[in-house]
Amino acid sequence: MALKSLFTLATAFALLAVLAEAHSWADCVDWRFNDPAKPGWTDKHGKCHGWARQYPVNSGVRFGGLDSSSPNRHYQQDPDDFIPCSDKNHGNEPGADETRQNPISRAYGGRFGSMASVKAGDSICVRWPAKNHAVKNEQDRGVFINMPPTPTTRDPNQSQLTKMNIAKLKYKNCNQISGDSDHTPCGGCFKIPDNRVAGTYMVQWRWELNDDEWYTSCWDLQVTAKNPPVQPGQPGESVARPLSGSTSIFAELAED
Ligand SMILES: *[C@@H]1O[C@H](CO)[C@@H](O)[C@H](O)[C@H]1NC(C)=O
């Protein structure tokens, strides 16, 4: 009997440890604010338009709860290999499968979420659950957003991705929920560089919790071209031209 209560107590403590040690992942990778003047991460503030690879959108699990699913959504990289995206086998915490699909569209739609999209030069936002790590006594080492300069046919490896950093976000940028530091929603926005050509890019969310303790989420991002700048002297230009002299480029061409 005493042994049994001891066992129950040990189980309870183990469970507590698991709860306290829960880790994060990118819950939404194309979060759009209802009112850009009032940015935020609760369901009142916005809506998700894009998800990570093979993200189970119809799971019925509440926001921030997928770490209790099987498999866990969070993926902790193994410092021996630093595989960029979970393959559900490797890692200190293997997490859920986020390997690149062929074709890429196989990771989206149906029971999975839709693919994120953005125009080059525009901003895009990512949301994640705090999982008890957005509290005062924890250091914010940040979330790194890594994205190749051009679309790639394979995912880069981690050392390549690390060099492809385009943004660093504050992990603790959250709408704190009083009494629930676990399910508190957090997020950040970053700009897609202007010079990205249209195409499908892989993007990595990489959160450093402690030294060499990294969690990642991976997704594919459909980038459309930035509105091309109109060249002076071409049809459609918006630059004002003097009324005197040639009034149209066609007249100029005709004079030659
Ligand atoms: C990553 O890829 C680059 C280029 O192919 C290669 O030189 C490098 O050794 C790779 N690094 C790791 C850790 O695999």
TrEMBL record:
It comes from the Eukaryota. Keywords: Signal. Residues 1-22 form the signal peptide. The keyword rRNA-binding does not apply. The keyword Signal applies. Coiled coil: none annotated. Residues 66-105, 226-247 are annotated as: Disordered. This is Chitin-binding type-4 domain-containing protein.
